Amino acid sequence: MKRDDKIFELIEKEHQRQLYGIELIASENFVSEQVMNAMGSCMTNKYAEGLPGKRYYGGCEVVDDSENLAIERLKELFDAEWANVQPHSGAQANMAVLMTVLNPGDKFLGLDLAHGGHLSHGSPVNSSGRLYHPIAYGVKEETGTVDYDMMEELAVEHKPKLIIGGASAYSRDWDYERMRAIADKVGALLMIDMAHPAGLIAAGLLNNPVKHAHIVTSTTHKTLRGPRGGIILIGKDFDNPMGIKTKKGVVRKMSSLLDSAVFPGIQGGPLEHVIASKAVSFFEALQPEYIEYQKQVQKNAGKMAECFIEKGYKIISGGTDNHSMLIDLRTKFPDLTGKKAENTLVLADITINKNMVPFDDRSPFQTSGIRVGTAALTTRGLKEEHMAPVVDLLDEVLSDPDNEATLNSVKERVNNMMKDFPMFAD
Ligand code: PLP
């Protein structure tokens, strides 16, 4: 077979970009060689519609073992009773839950996208906002922290069927206990999307939503450090049928309904190569050194937030409990948009993303903020002492974004710095 030089050249180009740049996108990470190898394996050739032991294709014995390992390891990691590892992405996992617990037009609560929520928690451009009736709660302007009183008031007023917690740009831990109490008070189900902090939760550094929520979803590729994908978990409510009945009037367990929502509800054949790779990443997350890695992610984020604050930047909520922080650029650079910051930093080989800040006066295309995170840099081996130099480099660019000489000089220093840090965790 003729080699596809074009694509392999592009893959190498992307490899070089990742190798020599400073990666601060809070939702990204670098997987280990074994996670990568499992993904690029012959498991991609296998069709396996259904679940382990209940497939619609022959020859699934081996992928059954692999998928079962992924499920068992994942349950152990989060102390869950049940798990589905098939969602192709975090958005698919959320879609499957909404399809299971809501009917079209049903009300649910989710964090406002402009306050750090995710598209799949009720944005009008996502199926969650198009098919159902989302009502948004927000963060408090003074503190930047989730307004649980507002959540409770909205829940009492609207009687939603579901309350969603979790965010894409929120640097504080969540009060899952309070959220469950609010959900119980109004007879709603509680779903927590732990996509961002999942790795820190697995390491026991943040509250575990599986203990409190009816259903938990996540991606596997952010702090968790697995391949791109989604998962769904249930904890103590595993045996709770929650009154959901099939058309024939049979009450089915929530877990069984979720399995059916993933396949055949919204997906076809599972990606068994990705599931094998998820299993490898869960294996890694069960090792003692993973806890050290996550502690370092958290320490680096704390130090980075301190360094930004010292330089006069405003961090929403004043700091971070996890791997990420949301920076309101307006206090230091009133005229600099998040868009301009993102586009300029990338010229110096520093990648971040623009992000709306709560109560932003700019559009989602411009934004007044940027979001940064430390999961990827920590995988490369950077420690607290490297955070000040990284913040200095960002500040140099943002202070003089139109100066080409500054950009070139910072880019050279970024590339030199990253030469000292290997790509893979191991
Ligand atoms: N949920 C949250 C909280 C997220 O931040 C994201 C992605 O950033 C997702 C879900 C969606 O994940 P995916 O991109 O895998 O669909």
pLDDT averaged residue by residue: 96
* Tally of alpha and pi helices: 15
Instruction: Going across the biggest sheet, name each strand in turn.
Output: 4-10-9-8-7-5-6
Number of strands: 15
Q: Helix amount, in percent?
A: 40-55%
The span between the termini is: 33 Å
Helix-strand string: HEHEEHEHEHEHEHEHEEHHHEEHEEEHHH
Radius of gyration: 22 Å
What structural class do you assign from the helix and strand content?
alpha/beta
Q: Give the name of the CATH superfamily of the largest domain.
A: Type I PLP-dependent aspartate aminotransferase-like (Major domain)
Stated plainly, the CATH topology of the largest domain is called Aspartate Aminotransferase, domain 2
Largest sheet: 7 strands, mixed
Low-confidence stretches: none
- Beta-strand content estimate: 5-15%
CATH architecture of the largest domain: 3-Layer(aba) Sandwich
The CATH class of the largest domain is: Alpha Beta
Describe the structure in your own words.
The chain is an alpha/beta fold. The chain has two domains: about 20-30 and about 290-420, Aspartate Aminotransferase, domain 1 (Alpha-Beta Complex); about 35-285, Aspartate Aminotransferase, domain 2 (3-Layer(aba) Sandwich), CATH 3.40.640. About 40% of the residues lie in helices and about 15% in strands. The chain contains 15 helices and 15 strands. A seven-stranded mixed β-sheet has the order 4-10-9-8-7-5-6, sandwiched between helices. Strand 7, helix 7 and strand 8 (about 190-195) form a beta-alpha-beta unit. The protein is globular and about 70 Å long. About 50% of the residues are buried. Bound molecules: pyridoxal-5'-phosphate. Pyridoxal-5'-phosphate binds next to helix 4. Homodimer. Belongs to the SHMT family. Pathway: One-carbon metabolism; tetrahydrofolate interconversion; Amino-acid biosynthesis; glycine biosynthesis; glycine from L-serine: step 1/1. Keywords: Amino-acid biosynthesis, Cytoplasm, Methyltransferase, One-carbon metabolism, Pyridoxal phosphate, Transferase. Its main location: cytoplasm.
